[in-house]
């Protein structure tokens, strides 16, 4: 098997993440332009309900799989466990309406994610990138066409879900079969051991998703769905930097895991320092753009009436900048297999964010929600740095 050069892997990862994130953001823009803030809020609320449940069901198996340098478990184990956990989550979420359709789409994305773990472990980031590009572009086209033709969010989300199913079954699983030969799921007692090993990361994923969505829950309760739609549209602007940072983290995590497994502490820390510097630079750049040209960016991206929310965008970008550092430290913790330590850390982040929302959203509205995210990100960075320093 020919493994692409590290620089090529980073390029593919960046390209896939950029196109996919741009497509996700463009979907929100389409809903804002072809619909209204209320429709954006309904879509955002659906994601906020489905996201934490499906992320918990994932148990972050992709990260465990990609950093399993010893090959302790086979692909069939990861696929079998993911089928079980996703099936349970789908039963809890399935129902009529937007939430049910989003849940089905996320379930198919879960199948693709198991394949991504195998691709990432073998440093075939090109396969992941091509899948993300295909899914992102096709989902955008399907949603745009159906939304324009029907003016129905339900039909638009249905199109997005159909694309997720087609890409997972027709592209991801087919490539996994070509790369691995057999992709049969394994259902054995050893799945419980794998589940127990990955459970801390599942809890971390759940708490992380809840933390990201806490301001949305508070805003929806205090200010209504329309205000939630505005906040969600602004928050999606951080996806640009987050896409770059996630690409860097995904491409670097297998190498960080190998350096740690080999006992190369100095090389591990040097590689991590470069990674954190790159993430910090991306975050600062996004914050500067928001401060200098926030109103113009919002008016161009959405509608002129969004321009008055530029201060909210600046706070969100500041929170994103710290969050990027915290996210990269999370990749480092996973590479170090410091799974259990991430649970209390992520719980502390969630508590800090919840406290910020409780104190700030009622009196300061959308700005309060953004500041609450900033408080949580600060706790994440401080705690993540402490865990990595002790584990490495």
Classification by helices and strands: mainly alpha
Strand elements, count: 0
Gyration radius, rounded: 20 Å
For the termini, the CA-CA separation is 31 Å
Integer tally of domains: 1
How many separate helices? 13
User: Which regions have little confidence, pLDDT < 50, spanning 5+ residues?
Assistant: none
Largest sheet: none
Mean pLDDT: 89
Could you say which overall geometry the principal axes of the C-alpha atoms support? globular
* Helix proportion range: over 70%
Percent of residues in beta strands: under 5%
The ordered H/E elements are HHHHHHHHHHHHH
Descriptive account of the structure:
- By secondary structure, this protein is mainly α.
- The protein has helices at 6-34, 37-58, 61-66, 75-93, 98-121, 125-150, 153-180, 190-223, 225-235, 239-261, 265-301, 310-335, 342-391.
- The chain has one domain.
- The chain is globular and about 55 Å long.
């Amino acid at each position: 098997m020919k493994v692409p050069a590290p620089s090529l892997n980073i390029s593919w990862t960046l390209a896939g993440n950029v196109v996919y994130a741009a497509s996700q953001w463009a979907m929100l823009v389409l809903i804002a332009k072809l619909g209204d803030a209320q429709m954006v809020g309904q879509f955002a609320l659906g994601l906020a309900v489905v996201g934490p449940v499906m992320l918990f069901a994932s148990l972050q198996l992709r990260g465990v799989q990609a950093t399993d340098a010893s090959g302790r478990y086979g692909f069939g184990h990861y696929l079998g466990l993911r089928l079980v956990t996703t099936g349970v989550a789908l039963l809890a979420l399935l129902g009529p309406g937007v939430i049910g359709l989003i849940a089905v789409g996320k379930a198919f994305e879960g199948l693709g994610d198991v394949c991504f773990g195998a691709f990432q472990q073998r440093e075939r980031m090109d396969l992941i990138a091509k899948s993300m590009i295909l899914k992102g572009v096709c989902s955008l086209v399907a949603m745009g066409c159906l939304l324009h033709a029907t003016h129905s969010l339900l039909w638009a989300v249905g199109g997005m879900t159909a694309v997720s199913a087609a890409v997972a079954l027709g592209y991801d699983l087919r490539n996994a079969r070509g790369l691995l030969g057999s992709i049969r799921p394994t259902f054995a007692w050893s799945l419980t051991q794998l589940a127990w090993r990955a459970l801390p990361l599942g809890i971390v994923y759940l708490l992380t998703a809840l933390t990201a969505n806490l301001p949305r829950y508070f805003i929806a309760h205090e200010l209504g769905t329309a205000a939630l739609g505005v906040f969600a549209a602004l928050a999606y602007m951080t996806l640009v930097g987050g896409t770059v940072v996630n690409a860097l983290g995904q491409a670097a995590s297998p190498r960080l895991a190998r350096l740690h497994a080999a006992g190369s502490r100095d090389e591990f820390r040097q590689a991590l320092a470069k990674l954190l510097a790159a993430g910090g630079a991306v975050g600062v750049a996004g914050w500067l753009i928001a401060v200098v040209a926030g109103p113009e960016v919002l008016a161009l991206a959405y509608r002129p009436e969004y321009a008055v929310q530029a201060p909210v965008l600046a706070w969100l970008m500041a929170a994103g900048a710290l969050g990027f550092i915290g996210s990269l430290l999370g990749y480092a913790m996973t590479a170090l297999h410091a799974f259990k330590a991430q649970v209390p850390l992520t719980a502390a982040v969630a508590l800090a964010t919840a406290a910020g929302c409780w104190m700030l959203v009622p009196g300061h509205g959308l700005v309060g929600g953004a500041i609450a995210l900033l408080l949580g990100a600060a706790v994440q960075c401080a705690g993540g740095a402490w865990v990595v320093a002790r584990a490495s």
